[in-house]
Each structure stands twice: as structure tokens, then as C-alpha cells.
Design goal:
The protein folds into two domains: 44 residues; 58 residues, no CATH class. It contains three helices and six strands, in the order H-H-E-E-H-E-E-E-E. The longest helix has 29 residues.
């Protein structure tokens, strides 16, 4: 009759060797695929983002601010795409005339539209195209 105690001890030794081999191969795989470095990098990013989120105030877009209805002092003309520096009165009224193309620009988000100079088709203020979809004229 086989020795049961010897079989159990042998089984425990084999399991310990397999566990040690698994841990060794796991470390080799983590080293090879740089998983340990990725974990450290992700922890660092998480700490920086957490610190940044707790220390900073989120800046709202200019059109949601309640600072007397002012728009930024530097805006881009929606017609000719040049940067325009506005005076205080233009910032308050949200209307200005572009010095480059001499077109009146209304920055009030409810009324701001682009209009094709050739056919007169209107586009929303957030239209991303540069050319009219109807006649192909430059907006």
C-alpha cells in the first residue's frame, strides 16, 4: 500500500514548484510586454489628473458666461476668417464690422448666420464649410 503522507507531500511540492514557475514566467511576460511600466505610467497619469481636477476651476465657454454679455476681444470673422480685435462697445453689443471684408457680423448666438453673397442662402453660425452648397460661391 502506497504511503498517503508521501503522496500528499509530493503533491504539495509539485504544486509549489508549478506556482513558483508560474510566478517567474508571469514576471518575465510583464517585463517583456512592459506591463509594469504601463501600470506605473497609468497611475502617474491618474494622480496628475486627480490633482488637476481638484485644483482647477473649469472655464466655461465664452457664450455661457454672465460677464455682462461680453464676447472675447479677439474673434474670427466668419466671412473672411481673419482675426479681428474688438473694442469694448463691440464686445458689449456683440456686433462689429469686419475691417477686411466690410461685412456686418452679429455674434448673438440666436441671430448669427452666414449668408451666401451670390444666392443669399443662409447657414447656421456653426456651419463648417467655406463654400455655398447651392451655388458654390465662397462664403
Amino acid at each position: 500500500m502506497p504511503d498517503v503522507g508521501g503522496i500528499i507531500v509530493g503533491l504539495i511540492v509539485v504544486l509549489a514548484i508549478l506556482f513558483g514557475l508560474f510566478m517567474l514566467l508571469r514576471e518575465v511576460m510583464c517585463w517583456y510586454w512592459k506591463i509594469n511600466e504601463m501600470v506605473l505610467l497609468l497611475r502617474s497619469i491618474d494622480q496628475k489628473l486627480s490633482a488637476n481636477a481638484s485644483n482647477s476651476v473649469v472655464d466655461d465657454p465664452w457664450w455661457t458666461r454672465q460677464d455682462a454679455g461680453l464676447i472675447p476681444s479677439n474673434v474670427q470673422c466668419p466671412y473672411c476668417r481673419i482675426n479681428v480685435t474688438l473694442e469694448e462697445s463691440e464686445r458689449t453689443s456683440r456686433k462689429f464690422t469686419c475691417p477686411n471684408c466690410n461685412k456686418a457680423v452679429d455674434m448673438n448666438r440666436r441671430t448669427q448666420t452666414l449668408k451666401c453673397p451670390k444666392c443669399g442662402k443662409s447657414y447656421a453660425h456653426d456651419f463648417a464649410g467655406e463654400f455655398c452648397e447651392e451655388c458654390g460661391a465662397h462664403l
